[in-house]
Amino acid sequence: MLCISKGDIREKGGKMSKLAIKGGNKIVNIKPPHYRWPVITQATEESVLSQLKKSISIYNRSGIIEELEEKFKKYYNRKYALLTNSGTTALYSMYIAAGLKEGNEVICPTYTFFATVTPLFFTGAIPILVDCDESGNINPNKIEEKITEKTKAIVVTHMWGIPCEMEEIEKIAREYNLLLFEDASHAHGAKYKDRKVGTFGDVSVFSLQAQKLIPAGEGGVLLTNNEEIYYRALLLGHYNKRCKQEIPSAYELYRYSTTGMGLKLRIHPLAAAIASKQFENLEKVLRGKRKNAKYILEKISEFTCLRPPQFKDYMEPSWYAFVFHYLSEKLYNIPIDKFYEALKAEGCEELDRPNSTCPVNYHPLFQNPGELFTQYKGKIKYKRGDFPTAEKFHETSLKLPVWHEDSDKEIIDLYLRALEKVTQNYKELI
After folding, report:
1. What is the layout of strands, in order, in the sheet containing 306-307?
2. CA distance 6 to 301
3. Domain made up of 42-279: CATH architecture
């Protein structure tokens, strides 16, 4: 079956328009950028200016730091929230605070942004990669076969804002007495069976980087109900005043409060001011994204050579991005590169082929980490071809932003018309 959608894209006189890549007029002729995020409102500017006048360095849990952490605690119903200077350092804090060390193994997703896994290299623990399912998330049916007596934890990533199958994964973690970690960096506000992702794990981490749904520019947050993990995360990167403020003097490691472990991983107060104000718009943004994503899903489903994102009815994605798949076998095996280049020529500037976000076994760091981390020499030797589902998922992926305003429908329709034009003029690409 050919990849043909409803309707035609025709020029005056009924003539089928030529592809822009072949000299025709492009469909999307609006000046880029076609997607702007984050939205810096006047309220956000005022929040930053207000904080600028108060303080640009906060040593303890007070002011804007306390305010933002309380918002996360309340929204996710967690006992502890700890802001950091990035999502990566929040992940690092999680692994260190959980006591992972050499000789441990951690079950990890293969298809994820590498920073989900790379902080493990600083602990000595071995990342045990697991292939994904059709959603791109870790496949629960492949986890148990990777568990050994050395396994200490499972970490999952809710890729592109689509929740993992948390009920099944949570059951496995309980059965084998493993710690469960969530990297929810893409998934602010996403839900699995009416429960927010980030509330299943012993610890969850969110990124506040500029493109995330709660942007700080740079930042991260660690959430947990585990007191021991929280205190150790404080000692890792929040020494002196904050440790002394929050860690009980009777706690066995309190004597290290002045120095902690010697690192400073605090978020900048101005970044916290941005995120705190942006947090107030999260539910509105989620409603808009879900509405527009539903519309895009319906239209993408009309194309036989495109597969929309896969998720279950009981999941509510956050729609950090809209990742769909090009099925070349449905379009005379025209390579994805040609298909992508034709769409870009039509003016689809925001269309992307994810690159650095790929199966982590593609990266030299996972093929031969021993050159950078000597303790791993000869211990990890992943290679291309090890994880066929994740690799196919990546190689066929195309990514669009998910717009959040009703007024964005115009640009969405233009992108959909560009898809229609390219698929109808496929012969020009053969």
Report:
1. 306-307, 322-326, 397-400
2. 11
3. 3-Layer(aba) Sandwich (3.40)
